[in-house]
Design brief:
With 203 residues, this protein is α/β, with parallel strands linked by helices. It is built from six helices and twelve strands. The strands form three sheets. A seven-stranded mixed sheet has the order 6-7-10-8-9-11-12, with helices on one face. The chain has a three-stranded mixed sheet with strand order 3-5-4. The relative contact order is 0.12.
Length: 203
Amino acid sequence: MDLWAFEPSEEIRAQLERRMESVPKGYRVSIHAKAVSDEPGHAALDATPGISGVKHLLTQESIDDGATPSVDVAVTTLVDVFEEEKIDAVDFVKSDVEGFDLSMIRGARPLLVEGRIGVFQFEYNHRWISTRTYLRDVFELAEGLPYRICEVVPEGIDGYESWHTELETYFEVNYLLVREDLMEDLNVRVGEFDESKPYTTRR
């Protein structure tokens, strides 16, 4: 099995490389010193000293403010990764980019159009506020694609027919873009909102 990881922070990447030394036999791990977004090039990364799970690319507002130390890092897109690594399709993509998830999804849209990703997991939380992005943007991006937007819940996976204002909470949630042909295998429960009651699921 092939695994690709992308970590632009030098100190966090060193920690990741040490952890990957214990990966079971049969896994081939490739770690790249790049960020992943919607356009290739370079960007400013939070360079606050110390190992941190919340290092992220900086918005233009943060760059202009100058309060956060930064370092220039290379940026790629999933489309370019697939081309460079000669990847036909992948089962799973995990986005953990501290509020820049929409940019990463936008960069992967051509792959989603072709159904070349089985499940795309992304985090949604208060950090989306700094990037001025909304969960609604993901629903709009996914329109017409062979995917359902789903939420990971304690009982399993809930799928949504469409965006609803009650979803735009900025609370910590893990969402999934699940390819339609995998819905049954993953036992996704599809539900809906209406005016008289909260979200309810149905088969």
